[in-house]
Structure formats: C-alpha cells, structure tokens
Amino acid sequence: MTEGFRERLGAVNERIKAACERAGRDPSEVKLVAVSKTHPAETVREAVEAGIFIFGENKVQEGLGKIEEVGDSKCEWHLIGHLQSNKAKKALKSFDVIQTVDSIKIAERLDRIAGEESIEDFPVFIQVDLGKEATKSGVYEEELDELVDTVLKCPNLRFEGLMTIPPYLPDPDDVRPYFRRLRGLRDNLKNEGAFGDARGELSMGMSHDFEAAIEEGATIVRVGTAIFGPRR
Ligand SMILES: *Cc1c(COP(=O)(O)O)cnc(C)c1O
Q1: For ligand 1, is residue 165 a contact (CB within 6 Å)?
Q2: pLDDT tens per residue across span 4-13
Q3: How confident is the model at residue 1 (pLDDT cuts 50, 70, 90)?
Q4: Does ligand 1 lie within 6 Å of residue 80's CB atom?
Q5: Which residue's alpha carbon is at the smallest distance from atom 12 of ligand 1?
Q6: Ligand 1 lined by 58 (C-beta under 6 Å)
Q7: Which of the ends of the chain has fewer CB neighbours closer than 10 A, N or C?
Q8: Would you say the CB of residue 137 lies under 6 angstroms from ligand 1?
Q9: How much is the pLDDT for 36?
Q10: Domain 2-228: which CATH number of 3.90.180.10, 3.90.1150.30, 3.20.20.10, 3.40.50.920
C-alpha cells in the first residue's frame, strides 16, 4: 500500500464532509468512488479493510483482472472509462455499474447482451461531454435526449444518472459552470420522470475539484490520486 493511505483517505472524507456542510447537504448523499486504476489488487484489499467498498476502473481488461483477484462480493465496481462495443459483454459480467454509456449503439448492445445473459436492471449512467474536447468521450448535450429515450426503452438497463469529465482547469472554481450544466440536465430529466422515484445521480468531481462538484450537487465523486497517491 502506498505510504500514508489512511491519512489521505481520512483527509478526503473530511473534505467531503466540509464541502457538504458549506452546501447545506447531508454527507450521506455523496458517494465516494475510489478510483483504483493502475493500482494493484492488494491496494484495493487494503482499502476494503479501511472501509471502502466502491471502486472505479477505467479499463475493462484491467478491471476484470482486479475484480477477480480481489474476489470480494461486498465490493461495487464502476466502469468509468470509455467502453468499446467488443468489451460490452465482459463489462456487463464483471462490473456492477457502467457510468460511460455514450452512444445509442453501445446502449442497445448492452441491453441485448444483458438479455442474453439474464442480467436484469443493469445500472447505467450516460456520459456527457460538456466541453466538446476531442480527447473526451461522451454524448454532446444536443444528443442527450435521444440517447436517454433509447436507454429508457432498453428493458434490461436501468438509467441511474449522468456523468461528466469536464475540461481540466487549474482553478476548480472555473469548473463550476460545467458542474452546474450537468446538474441542470439532470434536473430537467428528473422533472420529465426519466429517473422514476430515484434522485438521478450526478457523477462529477475528481481529486482536484471534488469539493466544488459537491457544492454544485454531485451525488458521486470519483477520487483516485487524493486517496491512493500518484498513479504508477
Ligand atoms: C482517473 C479518473 C478519475 C480519478 O482521477 P484523480 O484525479 O486521480 O482523482 C476520475 N474519473 C475518471 C473518469 C477517471 O478516468
């Protein structure tokens, strides 16, 4: 385990609490996804001992190996990286949540395979590319409604929320407009009933900007470096 892991985790939890207080929110509303990409299964096991059960991986293949190696059914694994269609089956069978649905094609494929594999109600998020950066995946805002309609028509998928990776800006305050936009999109979808009785998750905020994200309404923050230290 990387040096100082428990201290870092404690500090992240404190920062989450403080951000919730500033925003008048209950910390239990914010889920921490520990992003374990590039870190070995052993690190994940130690994190579990420290009370972390939700992990994020950005590559299907790396995730698969680790999920198997960790072999702990208490853990919940989120795919947070782009999903290629040829990995859809593997992703469905090993991950618990896919946060990165970004096309009609991948949604329909996931739904079809889930049906074949008797997987019901599989939780998915739609990734939105708010900054329209060439390096980021995600659906553009203009295409969101059509993709939502598709996902809602997929009997084996459960639409749980929106996810975004905003452009990197050194000052987290400058990222707030992106967080607000994602929240606005979520609010509209919620008003239209897209999430049923559920709150509609907002997965936004990483190590350098999760506090701003929480203040803007994040229900899930994805934190790697601030918990595990620099990636290998
Ligand atoms: C790597 C990654 C994170 C975590 O990034 P840190 O800056 O290390 O906290 C969060 N979300 C996604 C999609 C990632 O790929």
Answers
A1: yes
A2: 889 999 999 9
A3: low
A4: yes
A5: 80
A6: yes
A7: C
A8: no
A9: 97
A10: 3.20.20.10
CA 229 to ligand 1 center in whole angstroms: 12
> Is the per-residue pLDDT at 50 higher than 80?
yes
**How does residue 2 score in pLDDT terms, banded at 50, 70 and 90?**
low
Q: What is the pTM of this model?
A: 0.97
37 lines ligand 1 (CB under 6 A): yes
pLDDT at 107 over 70: yes
- List of residues 6+ apart from 128 with CB closer than 8 A: 138, 139, 140, 141, 144, 162, 163, 164, 182, 185
Measure 155 CA to ligand 1 centroid, in angstroms.
Answer: 30
Q: How far is the CA of 66 from the centre of ligand 1 (A)?
A: 17
Task: Report whether residue 35 contacts ligand 1, using a CB cutoff of 6 Å.
Answer: yes
Q: Which atom of ligand 1 is nearest to the CA of 225?
A: 8
